[in-house]
Amino acid sequence: MRETTIPLVGEPLALDLVNTLATGPDGEALDLLASPKTAAAWLGAQQALGRLTDTRANDLDLVALRQLRSHTAECVEQARQGAPPPLQALTALNVALRAAPAYPRMNWSGTAVTITIARSGDPRRDLCAELVHAAADLLSDPAIRRVRTCEGAHCRLLFLPAHPKRRWCSPSVCGNRARVARHYQKHRH
Fold it and tell me: Given CA atoms 80, 8, 166, 160 in this order, what sign does their dihedral have?
């Protein structure tokens, strides 16, 4: 089995979650939430970016994470078309939010009072609630209508383009593959 890469494209956290179900260059399905090892690697990458709190590998509920990804993907797909999200998916996301409510916590940084958002309870529910909160932020943002699917061959990753002409999830990966394929077709004869 080949090494699975983490398709982080610097998108909003909810899109990165949806993008954990990807397609490799050969059309092979890649599920980063299929095993504790790949899920922990994806979560570690998000934590390194400061987007999620620390979660230990043994705190992972892969079934819940995959369901959360599926519900988020359904809602994102509908919202980007301007359609209402499926009621069942929206309800499931709301249940995950209620399972681990957030509250502000004041801290002293050494020079000033800072506020962080904390959750108490089961780390598995806390992680799901953090991810659902990111989904809620994206789904309620008018920018959701600009979310696109990569035009790369076999690629299904979603991205929120900063520039209206952006066509690929990554210019250096899918964009480069498209340029190489065009060059090959042009000079084939």
Answer: positive
Of 23, 22, 77, 53, nearest to 130 by C-alpha is 53
Contacts of 109 (CB under 8 A, 6+ apart): none
pLDDT, tens digit (0-9, with 9 covering 90-100), for 45-90: 898 888 888 777 677 899 999 999 999 999 999 999 999 999 999 9
Written as one letter, the residue type at 120 is S
Model pTM score: 0.85
pLDDT digits (tens, 9 = 90+) for 141-180: 999 999 999 988 788 899 999 888 888 887 666 866 656 6
Angle at 133 between CA 174 and CA 74, to 5 degrees: 55
Yes or no: say if 103 and 78 are a contact pair by the CB < 8 Å rule. no
Angle, helix 36-48 to helix 62-80, in steps of 10 degrees = 60
Assign residue 172 a region (left: φ > 0; alpha: ψ between -120 and 50; beta: otherwise): alpha
Hey, what amino acid is at 79?
A
Residue with tokens 């990165």: 16
CA distance 131 to 128: 5
The C-alpha R_g of the chain, in whole angstroms, comes to 18
Cite the DSSP H helix spans in the chain: 13-18, 36-48, 62-80, 87-99, 123-139, 176-186
